[in-house]
Amino acid sequence: MSCLWICLSLLCSAFLQSSASSHEAVLLRCNETVEVEAGENVTLNCTVRYQNMSPSDSDGCYVVEVTWKNTSGNIPCDSGSRKYICEWDQNHVSLTISDVPTEENYTVDVRTDCGMAEPSHIKVQVKHNTSNKTNKVTRAPEQNITAVLIICIICITIIVVCIFYVLFGTNHGRKIRELIMRDKTQGDHRDSKEDAEAPLTTDPQV
Of 4, 55, 111, 182, whose CB has the highest number of CB atoms within 10 Å? Predict the structure, then answer.
């Protein structure tokens, strides 16, 4: 029985040492925080480094599997989704996200020929474009002023049309025009008569 426990403990220690050595051999370096404007695209980049091995050994190490995760679970990079694009080579892995709506935390796991790398975490922070908000706020009063001007022009046009209709399109309007013309004519005759009855002045020096 004691021999069985000894064998199991040796196997466990060997497994732990191999996993630890694989993590130590492969390092993953990513930016902890990435900023992007809301609705824009962003690319998360990470660098894969191989250490504690000769250059000839590291040249034979290649990335064989990359898994990206967010709070919803694994990201479907291989499903042909246009939302996410995953790319990698021997020394780099990247994830391009289209139309970023909100802040999110991402985790990447990388497996290479030379071992696994420790998972790396990246926080995507979303910035809201204040200039667009300012433009929207400034455009609202301009639109209101334009609407008021259009309404005023329409009202004035309607009033003018109504006045012309009353003066020229109705009997009452014609009577008003006749009275106005009669008063004007009488005023012209009165002025002519007053000019004719006015005494002539002579120059005393003549």
Answer: 111
Neighbours of 94 (CB within 10 A): 17
Q: Which amino acid, one-letter code, is at 148?
A: V
Query: In this structure, are residues 44 and 106 in contact, taking their beta carbons and an 8 Å threshold?
Result: yes
pLDDT at 132 over 80: no
Q: Could you report the per-residue pLDDT of 54-80, keeping only the tens digit for each?
A: 777 778 889 999 999 999 999 987 666
The answer to whether residues 108 and 67 touch, using CB atoms and an 8 Å cutoff, is yes
Q: What is the pTM of this model?
A: 0.53
Cα separation of 110 and 64, whole Å? Answer: 8
Residue 97 has a pLDDT of 93
Cα separation, 114 vs 91, in Å, equals 12
20-36: pLDDT as tens digits: 344 568 999 999 999 99
> Which two structure tokens, joined as six digits, stand for 57?
């050994």
Q: At what angle do helices 171-197 and 130-169 cross, to 10 degrees?
A: 70
